Amino acid sequence: QVQLVESGGGLVQAGDSLKLSCAASGGGFSTRHMAWFRQAPGKEREFVGASWRGGATSYADFVRGRFTISRDNAKSTLYLQMNSLKSEDTAVYYCAADKPLRSNTASRLRSDYDYWGQGTQVTVSA
């Protein structure tokens, strides 16, 4: 069973940076696409970006150039470096894991991810 634990959230000011981590256990990390989603109050959970198992990354348009996703397969850890934070980035951020070798491409759909962390709150004050 895969378990994901996010950390690194907090309260920051607009323009600040924050780095989230997602520690995975249960095996197969290097064979999975991994992703970050976020959910703001009253809104649907939305795709932020993904780390493909082959090393590529993909991002939602609204974070391109500000956020960077990376992974350390040796540590089974996924990261989300967030720079130039805006108040609209305030949300609970979730880490998600795909099934091993499910597809060659990382999905942007919530339904394609089988495992989720509990989330970490990021609050950006204006």
Shape: globular
Q: How many distinct beta strands?
A: 11
Percentage of residues in DSSP E strands: over 45%
For the termini, the CA-CA separation is 40 Å
Radius of gyration equals: 13 Å
Secondary-structure class? mainly beta
- How is the main sheet built? 7 strands, mixed
Uncertain runs: none
Bin the helical content: under 10%
Description:
This protein has 126 residues and is an all-beta fold. Helices cover 0% and strands 47% of the residues. It is globular and about 40 Å long. The chain starts with a strand and ends with a strand.
Labels describing this entry:
single chain; 126 residues; seven-stranded mixed β-sheet; 11 strands
Can you give me a brief rundown of this structure?
With 126 residues, the protein is mainly beta. It contains no helices and 11 strands.
Topology, pairings included?
Blueprint: E1 3-7, E2 10-13, E3 18-25, E4 34-39, E5 46-51, E6 57-59, E7 67-72, E8 77-82, E9 91-97, E10 115-116, E11 120-125
